[in-house]
Amino acid sequence: xxxxxxxxxxxxxxxxxxxxxxxxxxxxxxxxxxxxxxxxxxxxxxxxxxxxxxxxxxxxxxxxxxxxxxxxxxxxxxxxxxxxxxxxxxxxxxxxxxxxxxxxxxxxxxxxxxxxxxxxxxxxxxxxxxxxxxxxxxxxxxxxxxxxxxxxxxxxxxxxxxxxxxxxxxxxxxxxxxxxxxxxxxxxxxxxxxxxxxxxxxxxxxxxxxxxxxxxxxxxxxxxxxxxxxxxxxxxxxxxxxxxxxxxxxxxxxxxxxxxxxxxxxxxxxxxxxxxxxxxxxxxxxxxxxxxxxxxxx
Length: 298
Known about the structure:
By secondary structure, this protein is an alpha/beta fold. 39% of the residues lie in helices and 20% in strands. The protein has helices at 2-16, 18-25, 34-37, 58-65, 79-100, 126-131, 143-153, 169-174, 194-204, 220-233, 250-259; strands spanning 114-118, 135-140, 163-166, 179-185, 205-216, 262-273, 278-282, 288-295. It has an eight-stranded mixed sheet, sandwiched between helices. Helix 1 (2-16) crosses helix 11 (250-259).
């Protein structure tokens, strides 16, 4: 309930508060120069020959390429994602089953739906989505990630159906691809241009479809936990994995998505319990959070 009340407040701010909008647009935050990226026509279908600006960050690609071979090492650099995965999937299953009118108790509730996992890495999210019945396309800009994802998926007849491609969201838009659900988890904080990235995600989402994005809040608490503690104290992640200035606040993410014709309907936080070593869903979005939105026509 608290998260929905917060979401209503965020939506009210982004839609009707000139004070908030002006303050936001004057921000020095490098990724959100909205006036440059958006016009009245940005939500129109791409015209023939239309090209979206690439949102790739080459430094981030090099960083993750160096540890690509550890994707399926549950005790390696991607351990936090392995531990968080069941909680991420619980939110995805709940929101998408509700949105598409599917039975969440069914072992394969996503039968007949087309999903794209943007920034799929080694496939730790793509595989369980395929097991839940979805027709999954997994894309990543790092060739090593795609090779590892394919090798691992081929071990199981169900996951071997995943269509892995070394490509970008922008290239899929140029191919005029559309999906029922577009999912980008822990990716947006690593791209060069979040606004352009979200425009691509929106273009890939069919009208009436869903977009899900998870990321880290640009808060002092997030700096302390996601960077200082996770990277320098507990060494869960290699040092330099995250840059605090690249994080988005919930307000910023809602505004970007709304401008890309994605209406954010639900938001939840991921909270880590150091005693149990497990993650859970929460109304606390001060550090890790996920947003679920639906695509509406321009």
